[in-house]
Amino acid sequence: MIKSFLTLILINVMLPMLAYSNIGSMHQIMNELKFNNFRNARSITKNSKIDKNLKNLLIDYIHVRQYGCEERPNSIKNQNTDLFYIINNLKNGLHLFYHDGNETEAFKKLNLALKKSLEINKPFLICESLRALLEIYNNQSAGIEEKSHISLLKTYKQNLTDKYEQAHYHYYLFRLKQRYNVKIELLDQKLLHKTRRIINELGFKPLLGKLYISNATYYFHYLKKKDSAIIFINNAKLILENSNHFLDKERFIAASINHAGYNTETNTAEKALNQLQKIKFSNDGYIFDLLKKYYWYRKWKVFENLKVQDSSYFYKSKYLEHELNLKQRTSLFKISELKTLEKEKLNLILQTEIEKKKQQQRYLWIGSISLLIIGSGFSFLIYKNTRKKQRIAEQEKELEVQKTEKLLKEQELAAIDAMILGQEKERQRLANDLHDNLGSTLATVKLHFQHLQKNQNNPKAENLEEIYHKTNTLLDEAYQKVRTMAHEKNSGVMANQGLLLAIKNLAKKVSNGNEMLVEVQDYGLNERLDNTLEISIFRVIQELITNIIKHANANEIHISLTNHDSLLNIIVEDNGKGFDAKILPEKEGMGLKNIEKRIEHLEGTFEIDSTLEKGTNIIINIPI
To answer: 46, exposed or middle or buried, with CB in 10 Å at 0-12, 13-18, 19+?
Structure first.
């Protein structure tokens, strides 16, 4: 009796301790999975004191998170515990969506995991379930209810545990706005910049890559800032290209397909075709099958743009066949559709051949009749007329060459004038500083010295000590002013400060409450650059901010600096009135030309992307 009683007490004590140990270990494992640290997650799982069945289930869940499918389906016995129930539903839900494409069953499983996580009130499991559900929402193009989406985001907001979850919440909120905002062009850009800032602070590259893909879509289709969109899609591809995680590979392929689409829509179909031909599908599963549909669609549209009819019809057939498979249409309908396409293709080829033969016959008849009627006289006239046209064409070509040379000379002179004007402005500013700040001080010093010189041997002279003291003070003041001017001339880019801190200090000085907000975001700018290069870059950004304040009527400026190994990308955005970049206003035009010349001197590129009443983007790339 006593033995049974002690056993019962031991069970009652050990069970809560074991459950607490399971929760702690699972929390560690989920934190590693957040940042795709799959090896660490497996190591913690194997070395933890978690129950064997739950441990095996967690290893399977890690495999689904990394590869999108189960390693050993249905090999683990069910356990009647809350943790086992949650992880099992998470694993099955993700497998059903990523590998099988069964969205309905996937939603059921993931919702069960979310419901149980809310019941036991474990925020890290609640967030894990919500991220899985919201990721499925983001991959769907139709059939999703806005109210359900908003409800999930409200629950997410109430359970945020760290910066990682906060960054993901803002990303999903931005995607919600993109999906359901009826007037998409009025999407709150403050949300976009806030989301970008929070994700940059987190430093999780895959999420930054996803955001760049969304930004590219928003800028290309709704803001019509196509240069900015291509910058974002390139940044996304750079981040996602070398990742081994299957979702990052899927997003890299998606970014490449979108990039090809942008090039097709901007009449650079050859470039788009080259990009599409580099894409390789090395993974299986529904999510990659879904991408193949868009891949075939883009190939169809590229060949259609290039007027290569055979290839266009071939890839159109591939696209339709793939879409039919994904939607599980009947075999009869697929065969009918494909036969119709093949028939259309054959008819087109036959019609083309018939037209070619008719045209050849027509040319032969016309040639024969012309030769019979006109004869050698008409041939002579044709020859004479042809020669005359050739001479006129040569003269016109020579005039065009002369005009081009004259235009190039004028542009070269204008560039030289712009550089000289910039130098003159700098000299004038320095001269004004010397005259206003230093001139009056030195003039006073001179008067004191003249007085001392006249009275140096006069024993009756009064206040000589006081004048000596004042003169010394004035000289110190002049020295400090010279130091200050030299410091300002060096643009604040000091050896112990650096470019990034100098720009942030400049942003603080310029920011003025609600009237002007200047934000600086950086990515990968961890090391100092050459001091001369830092000063030049600082001058350019300082001049751009000055131009915005003077001319743009903006109250927000966003500065982004991104280091891509050997290339520094700078984006300066404002929400001002914008302008037509092809017809620059006279004052702004001269300032921007000076900046462009500075960038060319640094062997960089300078682009202006501006829309009236929608602000301006300045995009700069400088090799470092």
So the answer is: exposed
Q: Any idea which residue has 């149980």 for tokens?
A: 116
CA distance 126 to 159: 7
Residue 36 CB: number of other CB atoms within 10 A?
19
Give CA–CA dist 477/361, Å, rounded: 97
Q: What is the pLDDT of residue 470?
A: 76
The Cα–Cα gap between 604 and 624 comes to 10
User: Counting Cβ atoms within 10 Å, is residue 62 exposed (0-12), middle (13-18) or buried (19+)?
Assistant: buried
- C-beta neighbour count of 65 within 10 angstroms: 23
Nearest to 544 by CA among 509, 564, 572, 579: 572
**Residue 619: Cβ-neighbour burial (10 angstroms; 0-12, 13-18, 19+):** buried
Closest CA to 542 of 564, 569, 520, 563: 520
Q: Which pair of tokens denotes residue 601?
A: 């001197």
Distance CA 197, CA 338 (A): 49
Q: Which has the closest alpha carbon to 594: 578, 579, 606?
A: 606
- pTM for the whole structure: 0.55
Q: Beta partners for 619?
A: 571, 607
- C-alpha span between 60 and 29 (Å, rounded): 13
Residue with tokens 């050698």: 376
What percentage of the chain carries pLDDT values higher than 70? 80
Residue 570: count of CB within 10 angstroms of its CB: 21
The domain limits of the chain are 1-161, 499-623
Fold of 499-623: Heat Shock Protein 90 (3.30.565)
**pLDDT of res. 367:** 74
Amino acid 218 reads Y
Q: What is the CA radius of gyration of the chain?
A: 36
pLDDT computed for residue 82 by the predictor: 92
Residue owning tokens 């900046």: 595
Query: What are the beta bridge partners of residue 512?
Result: 516
CB 153 within 8 A of CB 172: yes
Are the beta carbons of 320 and 337 closer than 8 angstroms? yes
Instruction: Give how far Cα 592 sits from Cα of 274, 457, 562, Å.
Output: 35, 61, 22
Amino acid at 587: K
| Tokens linked to 605 | 């590129």
**Residue 231: Cβ-neighbour burial (10 angstroms; 0-12, 13-18, 19+):** buried
The ranges of the chain with pLDDT < 70 are 1-21, 74-75, 140-145, 181-188, 282-284, 326-348, 350-351, 411-426, 429, 432-433, 435-437, 439-440, 443-444, 486-496, 513, 584-590
Question: 430 phi and psi, to 5 degrees?
Answer: -65, -40
Query: Which two three-digit tokens encode residue 30?
Result: 């989920």
Look at residue 583 and give its three-state secondary structure.
coil
Dihedrals phi, psi of 521, to nearest 5 degrees = -125, 140
* Phi and psi angles of residue 560, each rounded to the nearest 5 degrees, phi first: -120, 125
Give the C-alpha distances (Å, rounded to integers) separating 417 from 410, 414, 587. 10, 5, 14
Q: What is the pLDDT of residue 334?
A: 37
Q: Secondary structure of the chain: what % helix, strand, coil (to 5)?
A: 75, 5, 20
- Tell me the CA distances in angstroms from 495 to 142, 501, 539, one per residue in order: 55, 11, 16
